[in-house]
TrEMBL record:
DNA-binding keyword on record: no
Catalytic reaction list: 5-(methylsulfanyl)-alpha-D-ribose 1-phosphate = 5-(methylsulfanyl)-D-ribulose 1-phosphate
Enzyme class: isomerase
InterPro entries: IF-2B-related, IF-M1Pi, IF_2B-like_C, Initiation_fac_2B_a/b/d, M1Pi_N, NagB/RpiA_transferase-like
UniProt keyword annotation of Isomerase present: yes
NCBIfam families xrefs: eIF-2B_rel, PRK05720.1, salvage_mtnA
Transmembrane annotation, as ranges: none
Organism: Rhizosaccharibacter radicis
Family listed: Belongs to the EIF-2B alpha/beta/delta subunits family. MtnA subfamily.
The protein, known as: Methylthioribose-1-phosphate isomerase
Residues under site feature: Transition state stabilizer: C168
Length: 368
């Protein structure tokens, strides 16, 4: 994707030294576009924990490079296993991270120690390239769904405008490129379809307000920011044609873990007959988990993310302010699970399917 006409991926190897990696500091968006240099395992782990880098596919790719960086310092088997375990523990809910590290280890365990760093960079690069290809395919499959809605509305005498609602950020800044939930929207816009996006603010970290709105605006996609509780009202009044979200983990039976608040959007969509689609690469499917509510670990983050807000004042300076009484504690579960029964379908790189074991296996028969 492009920022002011310049093409970027969300992670890349530094061209100057050929080994450190670069990412955008997502905690600084949309106020400033800061590029961070990550040079070792610890800076990568901190970037993932602090959400300087976030998004299930992207943290998997960055963690893969983190293991490559650690092997530059110590390529022994003991160090490799230790550093892999440390990186896997940085965020517990998104399955892509563990998947990427496990894939790296499969390749590296049978590689001589002297060659491990070089091979690790190669494998991390492949993970990135495959993520881009998968997300582009997701975009094309999702585009067909958006086009179908536009054509139906035109047949019914309407303008053909498609109003989509999304929650959190599942755009190119959450992946290596293209994004998951936003990829079909970008493609629809680029194809000349009239699309408009309702962007949930996504409390408490406001990824929708800070990241999704920034992405869509930079690409020229029409959008409107919503408070998190407004989506159901818009659905009741026919203002939403389709909900499309990303996910951090999908179970074998189609349950979906995504940013906190997604479950409530799915309930509102079901009550109002609005299709609720989830876009994901196959790396996000956890084939070992069936019951998402019972089995998916939900990350609990600091309560300060709820009791404090950061924003830009009229003078341009950034300020962090408390919005709750000093003696009030806050709970902060970062994700919730939407049961498969509330999901219209899944959009993957291999096509669309029902949110069910049979649906997923129809696209991934090798997992039977």
């Amino acid at each position: 994707m492009k920022i002011d006409g310049v093409p970027f991926r969300s992670v890349w190897v530094d061209e100057d030294d050929g080994w450190s990696i670069r990412i955008f500091d997502q905690t600084r968006l949309p106020w400033s576009l800061d590029i961070l240099r990550l040079s070792d395992r610890d800076t990568v782990a901190h970037a993932i924990r602090s959400m300087q880098v976030r998004g299930a596919p992207l943290i998997g790719a960055v963690a893969a490079y983190g293991l490559a960086l650690s092997l530059r310092a110590d390529s022994s088997t003991d160090a490799m296993e230790r550093d892999a375990a440390l990186l896997k523990e940085t965020r517990p809910t998104a399955v892509n991270l563990a998947w990427a590290i496990d894939r790296m280890l499969v390749r590296l365990r049978n590689t001589p120690a002297a060659d491990r760093a070089r091979v690790a960079y190669e494998e991390a690069g492949l993970i990135c390239d495959e993520d881009v290809e998968q997300n582009e395919r997701i975009g094309r499959h999702g585009l067909a769904l958006i086009r179908e809605i536009a054509e139906r509305k035109q047949r019914e005498g309407g303008s053909g405008r498609v109003n989509l609602l999304t929650h959190c950020n599942a755009g190119w800044i959450a992946t290596v490129d293209w994004g998951t939930a936003l990829a079909p929207i970008y493609m629809a816009h680029d194809a000349g379809l009239d699309v408009h996006v309702w962007v949930d603010e996504t409390r408490p970290r406001n990824q929708g307000a800070a990241l999704t709105a920034w992405e869509l605006g930079r690409h020229g996609v029409g959008h409107t920011l919503l408070s998190d509780n407004a989506g159901g009202h818009l659905m009741q009044h026919g203002e939403v044609d389709m909900v499309i979200v990303g996910t951090d983990r999908v179970t074998r039976e189609g349950d979906v873990a995504n940013k906190i608040g997604t479950y409530l959007k799915a309930l509102a969509a079901r009550d109002n007959g609005v299709p609720f689609w989830v876009a994901l690469p196959s790396t996000t499917i956890d084939w070992d988990v069936r019951d998402g509510v019972k089995e998916i670990p939900i990350e609990n983050r600091s309560g300060e993310e709820v009791t404090f807000l950061t924003g830009r004042a009229e003078d341009g300076a950034l300020h962090r302010v408390r919005i709750a009484p000093d003696d009030t504690d806050a709970a902060n579960p970062a994700f919730d699970v939407t049961p498969a029964r509330l999901v219209t379908g899944l959009i993957t790189e291999r096509g669309v399917c029902d949110a069910s074991e049979d649906g997923l296996l129809s696209l991934f028969p090798e997992r039977r």
